[in-house]
Design brief:
Number of helices: 2
Shape: elongated
Radius of gyration: 25 Å
Distance between the termini: 61 Å
Structural class: alpha+beta
Order of helices and strands: HEEEEHEEE
Strand content: 5-15%
Strand order of the largest sheet: 5-6-7
Length: about 150
């Protein structure tokens, strides 16, 4: 007599049912993790922008320029291949994203407005963003982070 080995139909149905239940539980948790990851990505980008602004400001002062210098210094200050344009001693909105290493396709970087630059994780999550605003005289740049919430990034 032959001894057949394998699974019965009932055993296979039970395993498929258990896998279906686990998938139904895990899928919503996975979706929530995407929003957490997007928020973490944007917080990392914010840190990069703040670091790039501080580095460019420090380099300007180290080269002997006034702390409120505006314009392109001569000789040029170039960081990572980008010539820095300053507004009151800090990078202006047109160069901050490039200085921070933020670019497409990893981020959505709309064209800079007159004194601001918005940074988004991608084009389909525009409310999950922060805005860099150039420094005013005797001040540091400001960062509007009201868009960096879990709800906006989901």
């Amino acid at each position: 007599m032959k001894n057949n080995r394998g699974f019965t139909l009932i055993e296979l149905i039970v395993v498929i049912t258990i896998l279906g239940i686990l998938a139904a539980i895990a899928l919503p948790k996975f979706a929530a993790m995407q929003a957490d990851a997007r928020l973490a990505k944007m917080n990392g980008a914010l840190g990069s922008v703040k670091g790039a602004a501080a580095m460019a400001h420090g380099l300007l002062i180290a080269r002997g320029f006034n702390a409120n210098f505006t314009g392109t210094p001569t000789p040029n200050i170039t960081i990572e291949g980008t010539t820095v344009v300053y507004a009151n001693g800090y990078p202006d909105a047109s160069v901050i994203a490039t200085l921070a290493g933020i670019s497409t396709p990893d981020y959505a970087v709309p064209a800079a407005a007159a004194t601001t630059q918005e940074i988004q994780p991608d084009s389909s999550h525009g409310t999950c963003s922060f805005i860099y605003t150039e420094a005013a005289v005797d001040n540091q740049p400001t960062y509007n982070i009201t868009g960096l919430t879990l709800d906006n990034c989901s």
